């Protein structure tokens, strides 16, 4: 099956991708999606790429344009789709190998950095967010994996990642904080999915000591 034309190639903007639970429900598997991704003209420069259980995890490195000093590391986890143990959890959890990958990668001799992370299915800690103390829209209960595999604990131990961004729950686009780590949602973009939120994107301004976010509606 050939790779169709890719609309992202019309824009001179670096692109980084991770997949969600719906992306391979049709005729395309993750290998096909990765093959299509490889055809991008401006694919972001991945580091520490690690493919496990058909999920690719990698980092992006951001350097200060004036000093060429590494100031941010962006961790990207492919959170998979559905659990192998449907009676316990509908959605897949971040795997132990993925947590070990983060533990090892975050030990690299980086400069002191302000790091963030992206995944599709939110972590179980999103359930601890107080609905009355968020910025943005909290319109549905978060739907993480029922199993808490421990990534958030590793983030606390390493004390590098200061914000996590998830998708998955289309009626949420809120930001909150839990034990010093910002828990965020993006914003539903497509029109072929459920959700009452106005379609748009989450824009993130990343600095060497903070992250700011804003919703841009279509």
From TrEMBL:
Q: Which UniProt keywords apply?
A: Hydrolase
Instruction: Tell whether Electron transport is among the UniProt keywords.
Output: no
**Residues covered by the Calcineurin-like phosphoesterase domain:** 11-171
Q: Give the species.
A: Companilactobacillus mindensis DSM 14500
Q: Which GO terms describe its molecular function?
A: hydrolase activity, acting on ester bonds
Q: Which domain of life is it from?
A: Bacteria
Matching entries from PANTHER family are given as: METALLOPHOSPHOESTERASE DOMAIN-CONTAINING PROTEIN (PTHR32440:SF11), PHOSPHATASE DCR2-RELATED-RELATED (PTHR32440)
The record's annotation in Pfam families points to:
Metallophos (PF00149)
Q: Name one GO cellular component term.
A: cytoplasm
Task: State the name under which the record lists this protein.
Answer: Phosphohydrolase, Icc family protein
